Amino acid sequence: MTDLTPQSNQAASIAAYFLPKIGDRRRWWHWMIGFVAICGLSFISIAGLMLGSRRIFPTNEMTIYLDLLLAFIPIFISVPLIYKFWHKRSITALMTSTQKFRWDYMLRAGFVLVAFFAVASLIEALIFPQEYAEMKVQTDLRKYIPLLLITLIFVPFQAASEEFLCRGYLNQALIKYLRSPWIVFFLTSAGFAALHAANPEAHGQMWPYLASIFTFGMAMCVLLYFEGGIESAIGAHIANNIFVFGFLGYEDPELPNTAWMTLGAPKISWSDFGLDLVMIAIVTSLILWANKRFGKT
């Protein structure tokens, strides 16, 4: 981005997305206060949710999974609230440089990602059947359907909350001081990866795992850069997590097997990261093409 000159709200652009408005609270200490407020509100709300959940529901693998996803709802709510009432900007401006949230971009990105990953997984299974040798299929529908419903209902809040915070709030907070969006994208994607460092999948394979998460974060920033909003990033993130948690995933020692098909414990090497890099690059390009070809102007 070489220009931050004013542009019409009708035209989506990276410049318009980062352009401050008169009356905004956009000094560095405004962002610091806002971020601390988001963390404080989220922490207090998460603690309350977990305490209430444990008193209401028995502790089992289903409620453990539900608690994990419920923990993101306070972030989903607090980021837009702080953005609107503290920074004095519309919630829409957190997500897009256009006047309205582009639902078609979000839905199209999700469809493209799921379609691509489904086809890619099928091709991989045919070419490398050994990778699917440990695959288990969940046949107990009384166990699978409730977990699937939890996934479909609450994963969108989990994925969108991360996009609100990392691709939305933090990107806008840093752009004024670093100017180059790519430096900002690098830092917020690194922060996004760091949020996943405590995941069980990182044990014993920390760096290639975090590199894959970082790459996904950068890909979502690429969508923001070329589309002037995070609608596609939200859609792709939701679709990715629903696909992994609901349909084809890996066994997690700390969570129930929520997916219809599981491939055993995740094994992530640098070669796996290389494959992830190629696949993410392809699906990001497909999303950009699909939205340019079929999106409303």
What is the structure about, briefly put?
With 297 residues, this protein is mostly helical. The protein has helices at 14-18, 28-56, 61-70, 73-85, 91-95, 103-127, 141-178, 181-194, 206-227, 231-247, 270-294, and strands spanning 136-137, 248-249, 261-262.
Entry keywords:
single chain; 11 helices; 3 strands; 297 residues; 3-stranded mixed beta sheet; mainly alpha
Structural commentary:
With 297 residues, the protein is mostly helical. Strands 1-3-2 form a 3-stranded mixed sheet. Mean pLDDT is 91; it is low at 1-10. It has one domain (14-294). Helices cover 68% and strands 2% of the residues. The chain has helices at residues 14-18, 28-56, 61-70, 73-85, 91-95, 103-127, 141-178, 181-194, 206-227, 231-247, 270-294, and strands spanning 136-137, 248-249, 261-262. It contains 11 helices and 3 strands; from the N terminus they run ααααααβααααββα. Helix 3 packs parallel to helix 7 and helix 6 (103-127) packs across helix 11.
Helices, strands, pairings?
Blueprint: H1 14-18, H2 28-56, H3 61-70, H4 73-85, H5 91-95, H6 103-127, E1 136-137, H7 141-178, H8 181-194, H9 206-227, H10 231-247, E2 248-249, E3 261-262, H11 270-294
Parallel strand pairs: 2-3
Antiparallel strand pairs: 1-3
Radius of gyration: 20 Å
Biggest pleated-sheet summary:
3 strands, mixed
Helix and strand succession? Answer: HHHHHHEHHHHEEH
Shape, per Cα inertia axes = globular
| Oligomer category | single chain
Widest sheet: strand order? 1-3-2
Tally of individual domains: 1
User: Count the strands?
Assistant: 3
Question: What low-confidence regions span 5 or more consecutive residues with pLDDT below 50?
Answer: 1-10
- Work out the helix count: 11
Share of helical residues: 55-70%
Quote the average pLDDT. 91
SS class: mainly alpha
| DSSP strand content | under 5%
The N- to C-terminal Cα distance equals 21 Å
